[in-house]
Amino acid sequence: MAEKRQWSVLAQHLPHHGLSLLCSGLPPRQQTGVCGSGQWSRNAHQNRVSAIIFSLAAEWVISTGHDKCVSWMCTRSGNMLGRHFFTSWASCLQYDFDTQYAFVGDYSGQITLLKLEQNSCSVITTLKGHEGSIACLWWDPIQRLLFSGASDNSIIMWDIGGRKGRTLLLQGHHDRVQSLCYLQLTRQLVSCSSDGGIAVWNMDVSREEAPQWLESDSCQKCEQPFFWNIKQMWDTKTLGLRQHHCRKCGQAVCGKCSSKRSSYPVMGFEFQVRVCDSCYDSIKDEDRTSLATFHEGKHNISHMSMDVARGLMVTCGTDRIVKIWDMTPVVGCSLATGFAPR
User: Fold this and answer.
1) Which residues on adjacent β-strands are paired with residue 63?
2) How far is CA 167 from CA 131, 157, 171, 215, 268, in A?
3) Whole-angstrom Cα distance, residue 289 to residue 284?
């Protein structure tokens, strides 16, 4: 069973009104900001601002909003440099300062990788894997890993670097994943969900990719037809069955051939999921050992931020509560000494 703990809260502040830096995130038609050359005001977005990043090297402010666009502006002149539009609301943003790549998640469940130029941009690729809107992103420029959390309660790790195209699925939350933070030194991922769940994932282990779901007109175990396979049902004089999928092998199976459930943490399944009978028999007891710890935040978490050097975490929620957490029992004091926990 996955371990559940409750950390000590160092401080909490009740009257929180959702203010943020630089932009308020409210839907006025004109957003304002402050830069080195003085105050400036431009029509950066025509709707709610969802994310904003400042690049000191490029002297850009990059932002996304519910007007379905990402924009980048010059902080020196205040001029709009470029915009790129999407088909859905842009919900979150990450930026690689060295390559000027921007990662934009949207409400359709897609993540778009853009190469930003001074007055233009180009679409590098689109990442598709979530079944719900993207709620948060985290980019690790050292290992070149992108983590995404979504309203489908799952997290996906995208390997943008050496092993291009490799993805890992993490499922341990029971509600929308709202915030992520990857601790590169200790190889741990911290995630928070809107139901107050806080998870710490051990990413310093060899994990398996979840398989692609296979499609078939009949069960790939017992060969009974599925309910849309009219011809086989007529030939065999049997009723069609509902199609399911084994989370471990990806095969299309009927309910009778996938009647058991099991966790499989090495593939990211921290709670029990549907597996076919043969896969269930192949999973050993040690394979069910959890690779994450789960904790109860006891408030509706909407955002999280980490002070890695001191091992502190701040969470704020829609309940207008801000909590400061001591993370050292989980991530260890090794963050200050430089030694990873084993």
Assistant:
1) 52, 71
2) 15, 5, 13, 21, 11
3) 10
Q: Which helix (H) or strand (E) holds 334?
A: helix 334-337
Rounded percentage of the chain residues whose pLDDT exceeds 70: 83
Are residue 181 and residue 61 in the same domain, yes or no?
Answer: yes
Gap between the Cα atoms of 237 and 195, Å rounded? 48
Q: 238 and 149, same structural domain?
A: no
Cβ-based neighbour number of residue 257 at 10 Å: 21
Most confident of 16-25, 104-113, 225-234: 104-113
123 shares its domain with 202? yes
Q: Model confidence over 131-151: pLDDT tens digits?
A: 999 999 999 999 899 999 999
Q: Give the structural domain span for 281.
A: 230-287
Residues 255 and 1: their CA atoms lie apart, in Å, by 25
Residue 63 is assigned to a structural domain of this protein: yes
Contact 186, 204 (CB under 8 A): yes
* pTM attached to this predicted model: 0.81
Dist CA 204 CA 342 (whole Å)? 10
CA 101/CA 120 separation, integer angstroms: 12
Distances in Å between the Cα of 334 and the Cα atoms of 7, 34, 135, 141, 175 are 18, 37, 30, 21, 31
